[in-house]
Each structure stands twice: as structure tokens, then as C-alpha cells.
Design goal:
- The chain contains eight helices and twelve strands.
- Strand 7 and strand 8 (162-165) form a beta hairpin.
- With 242 residues, the protein is α/β, with parallel strands linked by helices.
- It has helices at 13-21, 42-50, 60-65, 76-88, 91-98, 127-133, 218-227, 232-240; strands at 2-6, 28-31, 54-56, 103-106, 109-112, 141-144, 151-155, 162-165, 173-174, 179-183, 197-203, 208-214.
- It has a six-stranded mixed beta sheet.
- The protein is 29% helix and 22% strand.
- It has one domain (2-239): Purple Acid Phosphatase, chain A, domain 2 (4-Layer Sandwich), CATH 3.60.21.10.
- The chain binds zinc ion.
- Zinc ion (ZN) binds at residues 8, 10, 34, 59, 61, 146, 148.
- Zinc ion binds at residues 8, 10, 34, 59, 61, 146, 148.
Length: 242
């Protein structure tokens, strides 16, 4: 079975469609949350996700859009986008976001938006946070999103230390005896200085995963954001992947 692991789509349909056009023999989509927020296409992104065999967990922007959490910790641009998103959501898509769990286990992988310890809010940026997460999931492997930065934390099963590895976009990474915390990066708002959409292909038969990088029509999303009067900083940053 082959699985596409996507995260932080952030209402960017052009990016999400470029990613799904890149799929080869994908049987399921696992989504790590933040389907909405920031971008211009919240309903279209949820509809597109639901057109695949999929599972999905909640991110902080999903909960902000439906008012389950306040936006006082968001910056003003993210707050404005959350309010705009709330006004756009079709009732069925509102319910879809309401029903998202915060954590899932699937085929030996734990899925959490931020971290398995604090799925909605915690960022796993450094190996110290990865190491602190190890007691909070029981599977060997865990996928997280939230930082929008593709990375692999490879953690010795007994020593409880994690090495931080940059993903290779060419070579499949083997699922071995180490525990792994894997971030596929963001589909709709990359933040590592490269503007391409990112995701991961997981091959459960070969026991490998591969990070993927896909160019998309950034200007198309930016035009829609301008038309919707979403904050300028939010569409400008897409050009730089930041
Ligand atoms: Zn996000």
C-alpha cells in the first residue's frame, strides 16, 4: 500500500492539486491538519481531500476557523484569515472540521498535527522536543506537521536521543529499527525558503518513505487571496516559501 502524507494545506488549492497530480499509485491520503487557514480555498481544499480515501486530524487553524480555540495567540494576519475562513465554510465542511480527531494511529504510525504530547499546539522544531515526545506515542513511527518545515528526527530506540536529518527528495528513506518522527513539510505554505509544495510518499510494502517537492502556480493562489482581501503578507510570503 502507498500512502500520501500531506500537512498544512492551508486552503491553497493550486498547491494541493499540484501535489495530488504528482501522486503515483497512491491508495490513501493521510492529512496532518491545518487543511484551512491563511489561503483562499477552504471549501475546495476540504472537498478535494474528501475525494480521496483519507484520514485527517485537527490542526490549530482548523479549530480556530470553527471557533473551538480563540485566536489571541495568532498574529493579526492569521487572525484575519481565520475570521474570513469562518465566514466561507459550507455547513458540511464546518462539520467535517468539527469531527476531526486530534491524534490517530494508522498502520503502525501515530499522526499528530503539532506533537504527540500536545497535538494542537506544540512545535517539534529541535531534537530536544522530539526526544520529549518519545514517551507520548507507542508506535515506532510518528508523523507531525505544524512547523511547515520538512525534517526527519531519527531516534535511537534505547538511548532516547534523536538526530535531526534533512530529507532527501530523491532517495527513499528506510523504515528500520530506529524510532522516527517525520514532518512532510507543508503543502500550502512552505517555510524553509523554497516555495514548492511538499508531501511524503509512504510505501508500506517496501517499508520506505520519500519526501516530495512539487512546483505549483503560486500566482494563481496569490490572485485569489488579493481578490478576497486577505492580508498582503500572507500572499507575498508564498513567493519566498517563508
Ligand atoms: Zn499550519
Amino acid at each position: 500500500m502507498r500512502v500520501a502524507v500531506v500537512s498544512d494545506i492551508h486552503s491553497n488549492l493550486a498547491a494541493f492539486e499540484a501535489v495530488t497530480a504528482d501522486f503515483v499509485d497512491v491508495d490513501e491520503v493521510w492529512c496532518l491538519g491545518d487543511v484551512v487557514g491563511y489561503g483562499p480555498d477552504p471549501n475546495e481544499c476540504i472537498d478535494h481531500l474528501r475525494s480521496f480515501d483519507h484520514c485527517c486530524i485537527a490542526g490549530n487553524h482548523d479549530w480556530a476557523a470553527i471557533g473551538r480555540i480563540g485566536t489571541e495567540d495568532f498574529n493579526p494576519d492569521a487572525q484575519a484569515a481565520a475570521e474570513w475562513t469562518a465566514q466561507q465554510l459550507a455547513p458540511a465542511n464546518w462539520r467535517f472540521l468539527e469531527d476531526l480527531p486530534t491524534k490517530l494511529e494508522r498502520n503502525g504510525f501515530t499522526l499528530a498535527h503539532g506533537s504527540p504530547r500536545d497535538p494542537i499546539w506544540e512545535y517539534i522544531i529541535y531534537s530536544s522536543a522530539a526526544e520529549a515526545s518519545l514517551d507520548h506515542f507507542t508506535t515506532a513511527y510518528c508523523f507531525v506537521g505544524h512547523t511547515h518545515v520538512p525534517v526527519i528526527f531519527s531516534c535511537a530506540a534505547t538511548a532516547r536521543t534523536c538526530a535531526t536529518l534533512d530529507p532527501s527528495y530523491e532517495r527513499p528513506f528506510p523504515l528500520g529499527n530506529q524510532r522516527l518522527i517525520i514532518n512532510p513539510g507543508s503543502v500550502g505554505q512552505p517555510r524553509d525558503g523554497v516555495a514548492d509544495a511538499r508531501y511524503v510518499v509512504l510505501d508500506l510494502d517496501r517499508r520506505t518513505f520519500t519526501h516530495r517537492r512539487v512546483a505549483y502556480d503560486i500566482a494563481k493562489t496569490q490572485r485569489k487571496m488579493q481578490q478576497a482581501s486577505l492580508p498582503a503578507r500572507l500572499w507575498m510570503r508564498l513567493s519566498y516559501g517563508w
